[in-house]
Design brief:
6-stranded parallel β-sheet, 11 helices, 43% helix
Length: 301
């Protein structure tokens, strides 16, 4: 018996496969292109499907909306239909918190009414709704995971860019903003997936996935500086002045715009209470330890 994994070439997949192999689990990989002509016969002897493949959020906003719906919805639908008619027991769909909300007031819970604003979030939500709408045969389970910002070895996202700023000794000028964000170590995500495919006592449903603790952007800068053995440089410039500069940047198309400032300083807190209650096990890494491991991987890269 084996686990079928899609999207194995992505950031999560490159961390998940060695993690599961280290647990003695057999895996079979299928590429996103193979999903276009998926043969349900590929699911013979499959025990679990871990669906990582998807069209990622395009910050440049140049992607064709139809591609999001095809990859994130149509291909997920096709794979889930095959799962329902197969002997596989678990289907894990890695969605996103962006399927629920682009902005969070307070704490994001699973019970809230989803209100995605982007095509990315809407396409992920469509896939979620399809999975939930289908009758589930006895003995099968589905798990829709909504991870927040994932980081870890091999990560090429915003944390890496922030790390380069700290490495160059550039002061962080937004320390005057007080924000709290949820992060997710990729090792904690791998731990969650392993628990879901090796246990039978976890109920089907939608689960937010986030580390236990939140961190401010200033906290993250401090952790990154410590990994470089540098003294942290935090500048608490007046937020009103920064907002004024960002408004000018928006008009003049400068690097710091109002939209980019919001992304850097907003709070986005995700509750993992439903998941941790279902697992009844602690995550292997704290939020700070996970960030320290990621920072260390940047230094070695």
């Amino acid at each position: 018996m084996f686990n079928l994994i899609t999207g194995a070439s992505g950031f999560v997949g490159k961390n998940l496969i060695p993690y599961l192999e280290g647990k003695g689990l057999r895996n079979r990989i299928i590429s996103r292109s193979e999903l276009n002509d998926f043969n349900p016969d590929n699911l013979s002897d499959c025990i679990s499907i871990i669906h990582l493949a998807g069209k990622a959020h395009d910050l440049s906003k140049t992607s064709n909306p139809d591609e999001y719906y095809h990859v994130n919805y149509e291909l997920t639908k096709r794979l889930y239909d095959a799962f329902l008619s197969s002997k596989a027991k678990q289907f894990i769909f890695v969605s996103s918190v962006k399927a629920a909300a682009d902005e969070v007031k307070g704490v994001l819970l699973e019970e809230g009414i989803p209100n995605p604003k982007t095509v990315y979030g809407k396409s992920k939500l469509m896939a979620e709704e399809y999975i939930k709408s289908q009758p589930l045969p006895e003995g099968k389970s589905y798990f829709i995971l909504r991870p927040c910002m994932i980081h870890g070895p091999g990560n090429k996202g915003n944390l890496n860019l922030l790390y380069q700023v700290v490495r160059k000794g550039i002061p962080y000028p937004l320390a005057g903003f007080e924000n709290k964000r949820s992060f997710l170590s990729v090792e904690n995500l791998c731990f969650v997936i392993n628990e879901l495919i090796t246990r039978t006592d976890i109920p089907s449903g939608v689960y937010n996935v986030a580390d236990d603790e939140t961190q401010s952007t200033s906290d993250v800068v401090t952790i990154l500086a410590a990994s470089l053995h540098k003294k942290v440089k935090l500048w608490a410039i007046s937020p009103s002045l920064i907002r004024f500069i960002a408004s000018i940047g928006t008009r003049l198309h400068l690097p710091l715009t109002t939209e980019r400032l919001t992304k850097l300083t907003e709070s986005y807190i995700v509750s993992n209470e439903k998941l941790t209650w279902a697992l009844n096990k602690p995550f292997p890494l704290s939020a700070q330890k996970g960030l320290e491991i990621t920072a260390s991987s940047f230094r070695k890269a």
